[in-house]
Each structure stands twice: as structure tokens, then as C-alpha cells.
TrEMBL record:
<dbReference type="Pfam" id="PF01243">
    <property type="entry name" value="PNPOx_N"/>
</dbReference>
<dbReference type="InterPro" id="IPR012349">
    <property type="entry name" value="Split_barrel_FMN-bd"/>
</dbReference>
<feature type="region of interest" description="Disordered">
    <location>
        <begin position="153"/>
        <end position="191"/>
    </location>
</feature>
<feature type="domain" description="Pyridoxamine 5'-phosphate oxidase N-terminal">
    <location>
        <begin position="9"/>
        <end position="131"/>
    </location>
</feature>
<protein>
    <submittedName>
        <fullName>Pyridoxamine 5'-phosphate oxidase family protein</fullName>
    </submittedName>
</protein>
<dbReference type="InterPro" id="IPR011576">
    <property type="entry name" value="Pyridox_Oxase_N"/>
</dbReference>
């Protein structure tokens, strides 16, 4: 049976830190596509306090999460146990996109491990923290993180394309604005 919590207690914090992957879900205010993104690298997620979390947004293929957060703020982060006791934990809340131009960006950036290709930081104020059983989630073995995202940024592959892309406005697949030109610099910015 699921339970709703007032915030992240020590047991939930331990559960989060033990998960090698989490999922981020957002949707536009009206119409459009729902987006769910898997996130890896355990050192890209930080718990700021009992009801506030953040994750490092690395440059990737799309800007759906940024676009949807700027559209309506709604976001859900889900962790699920693929080993050990079955459990699913969802953090429902309101997200905020923190860019390198924001005053708290440098302070937040220090909370994460070293990664190239940093685009933004997503901060979520949780208004509901709830778990459920996870009885149907399969057992899966975690071997290691894929390093392709970091390796590609360290090797400089595609840097010209990323630089050009960061200098132009970017939008979601539904045409919602996400990033203004030169709002981020994922080619040169590292955590």
C-alpha cells in the first residue's frame, strides 16, 4: 500500500541515493506531447532539503523538460527499485530552470559530480512525495553507467554543432519555447 510523506525522510533519501536511474515526466499545459526522460549518473541528482531536489541537465537531444517547465512548471520525478525490496517513489512538484545566468547557478553546480555538456539545472519544489509497491517492476542488474554522453563532450565530438545549436533559440517538438539563443553554453560549461 502506498504512502504520502510530508517530505524526504532519511529512509527515502537512502532509497534515492541507491538508484542508478530515475525518470522525469512533464507535459505542456494544453495539447502536445507528454515527455518522459530517463536520467543516469547518480551524481547528477541532489536533495537540497526535505521538499526540494535538483538535477543537472546535460545537453542531449531535446529540450522538452525545459519547455514544459517554462510553460506550466509541472514535473514528476520517479525512482523505482530494480533490485532489493520493491518500491516506486514519485516526487511531484513545480520545477524551475536555472541557467548559467541565474545568481544561484554556481552554488547549485557545486552539488554535482564532474560532467561536461552542462546545459541547465532543474530545481523542483515537491508538493507531494508518495511511494507505491513496485511489485510488477522486474529485477534488473546494474553493471555501470554508460559514459558515452560525457565521453562525447570530452572528446569534442559534435562541439561545433552544439555551439551553433546553443546560439539559436530552441523549442519543444510541439513548438513551445525552451531556450533562448546564448542562454546556455553546454560546449564550454562543466560541473
Amino acid at each position: 500500500m502506498g504512502k504520502v510523506y510530508e517530505g524526504l525522510n532519511d529512509r527515502l533519501r537512502s532509497f534515492i541515493s541507491a538508484q542508478p536511474v530515475y525518470f522525469v515526466a512533464t507535459a505542456p499545459e494544453s495539447g502536445g506531447h507528454v515527455n518522459v526522460s530517463p536520467k543516469g549518473y547518480a551524481d547528477t541528482f541532489a536533495i537540497l532539503d526535505d521538499t526540494t531536489v535538483a538535477y543537472l541537465d546535460l545537453d542531449g537531444s531535446g529540450v522538452e523538460t525545459i519547455s514544459h517547465i517554462r510553460d506550466n512548471g509541472r514535473i514528476t520525478i520517479m525512482f523505482c527499485a530494480f533490485s532489493g525490496q520493491p518500491k516506486i517513489l514519485r516526487l511531484y512538484g513545480t520545477g524551475r530552470v536555472v541557467t548559467p545566468h541565474d545568481e544561484d547557478f554556481e552554488r547549485l553546480l557545486k552539488l554535482f559530480g564532474p560532467h561536461p555538456g552542462v546545459r541547465t539545472i532543474i530545481v523542483v519544489t515537491c508538493d507531494r512525495v508518495a511511494d507505491s509497491c513496485g511489485f510488477a517492476v522486474p529485477f534488473m542488474n546494474y553493471d555501470q553507467d554508460r559514459t558515452l554522453l560525457d565521453d562525447g563532450r570530452n572528446a569534442g565530438a559534435g562541439n561545433a554543432r552544439r555551439l551553433q545549436r546553443s546560439q539559436n533559440p530552441r523549442a519543444s517538438i510541439d513548438g513551445l519555447p525552451a531556450l533562448a539563443g546564448n542562454e546556455t553554453d553546454p560546449v564550454h560549461l562543466r560541473s
